[in-house]
Specification:
The protein is mostly helical. It has 5 helices and no strands. α3 runs antiparallel to α4.
Length: 122
């Protein structure tokens, strides 16, 4: 058994897989429950910043919106294919997709282009 979990596959975890899934579900449920009841008003309504009308027109245009959604759909399809048909190993591209695209890439896109998830959601 590998003593460092998260390095190999989920079979090397020191806990049963069902306990890990139940714990993750409980954490998500509690987190969203606390946010729902504790966060009474939005903290993201500040419109401070530099207006960029040309970039805004480009990002809001129909052509760019369709291109963003098609690109996002192709990326999601590639990740789904790798997840479904790929080998259950750490070098499966779906792992990189989740960590890089969702945790890092979507934040960078949102900073640069605004509401990136809304614009790329197929």
């Amino acid at each position: 058994m590998i003593t460092l979990h998260g390095i190999a596959s989920r079979a090397d975890l020191p806990l049963p897989f069902e306990a890990v899934v139940a714990g993750a579900g409980a954490v998500l449920l509690i987190t969203f429950w606390v946010l729902f009841f504790a966060w009474k008003r939005s903290k993201f309504e500040d419109d401070a910043g530099t207006p960029m009308p040309r970039l805004t027109r480009f990002v809001d245009s129909t052509g760019a919106s369709v291109a963003f959604r098609v690109a996002a759909g192709l990326i999601w399809a590639l990740a789904a294919i790798a997840l479904i048909f790929g080998v259950d190993r750490i070098d499966n591209p779906s792992v990189g997709f989740i960590y890089v695209w969702l945790w890092v890439g979507l934040v960078v896109l949102s900073v640069l282009l605004g509401e990136a998830y809304k614009r790329t959601n197929p």
